[in-house]
Amino acid sequence: MKKGKMIKALSIILAMLAIIFATVTPSYAASSSQTSTTKKVAKGSVLKRIKAKKELVVGTSADYPPLEFTTSENGSTKYVGVDIELAKEIAKDLGVKLVIKNMSFDSLLVALETGKIDMVISGMTPTPERKESVDFSKIYYKPSGEYFLINKKDATKYTNIKSLKGKTVGAQTGSIQYNEIKSQMKGSTVKGLGKINNLVLALQSGKVSAVLMEELIAKAYAQNNNNLKAVKSDIKDDAAGNAVAMAKGQPDLVAAVNKTINKVKKNNLIDNKFLPQAAKYMKTANKTNKMSQYWSYFLKGVGYTIVITVFSVLIGIILGIILALMRLSRNKLLHCLAVAYIEFIRGTPQMVQILFVYFGVGYLISNLSAIIAGIIAIGLNSGAYVAEDIRSGIDSLPKGQVEAARSLGLSQAKAYRYVIIPQAIRNIWPALGNEFITLLKDSSLVSVIGVSELMYQTQLVQTSTYRGVLPLFIAMVIYFIMTFSLTRLLNYFERRMKKND
Questions:
Q1: What residues make up the domain containing 135?
Q2: Where are the transmembrane segments (predicted)?
Q3: DSSP secondary structure string, 422-438?
């Protein structure tokens, strides 16, 4: 293919990609609370931005009852707990709307530093290490101690650090408890997971012998699950307590938050109002946590999963064709660029790519929502694999196909468009089908950045119902139905192609 025609083709395809992104972004960025609000967290900028947008975006890991968790209300997710009530008070005092962004605990500070959220309220302790990256408010709540959550059948077996020697003990990744196990339980192995509900699931399935938590959280899970028990640990807890985390260089915002905390402490709102409200929601969830009440969660997750899959497939196909043609090109620069891209994408984990697009690229591009970042990351990953499938399909065709097309008066571009690529697609259709099915399942990875796809919704159900296995089983069945249906659809088109041979 001539250089001028190649450049023209690339320009047309890049324009198509721009149209796709422009079409997707307004419909989802406007409705999603998961949007970036700044390119760089400049000194003194956050409070101004909050008041300008009239919106306070608070990051939390809503799997930590009674501090922050979810409940179902009229089929919708509602964030509740002590920390959520504090966030409401802060937003009220600032005169703005509160938006909760639920994500993994170990991603919260990254989101804060990159401007994805305005502050973190998630039972976070202001350690010296964390203070190097972010600023903290005054302490608003001091936990009464650390507890081991264990299986009730092990109540007499695991009672202290010594009894857990040689065992695996779980804790939330990036938490104080994780570091306490490493420093004070030298004879035990620490197992870190991003979500508390996954740690509880690991406990129930025997993957860990105990999970270290704050007292209130451990008791909350024990009270809502008859198979679990909370046991006071002999861990030395030197934590200062929980505080609100904010980006560096925001003294006006810190002062505003401290003013609210002073009011909360003066009126003893945590003990008199916030904790009783959280206990009420937990008690209600314990009585009415039937799976049938959460069908809307799964339905919403399916909708987002399908959207992510469809647009990622479009990006993957378009990008795959571009990269395949570039790799087959006689232009050394285009060939090398394609090879470098394909090898790099295939040589790095997809989850890392998703995090990089959301936090890295999103740091430079304002208003890059989580769902758009997820679609871009999965589409870019898929493009590398589709490119290799298409390239192998083109290489499998007899050389005489191009010569025959050219002898009929077709230009090289038209020969590829009307003769070569259609035949290549037909030959590699089963391989492309496998890639599309894998892509549908891999959409679950975007839950790590807070996209409300099926896996994210499943985690919300786990948190709301205090059940670990059943929501996962339901998610597995739904994924199977979607992949089975997609397989039947792909097989239908494959039969149609064979009939046209």
A1: 46-141+242-288
A2: 301-325, 355-380, 469-490
A3: HHHHHHTHHHHHHHHHH
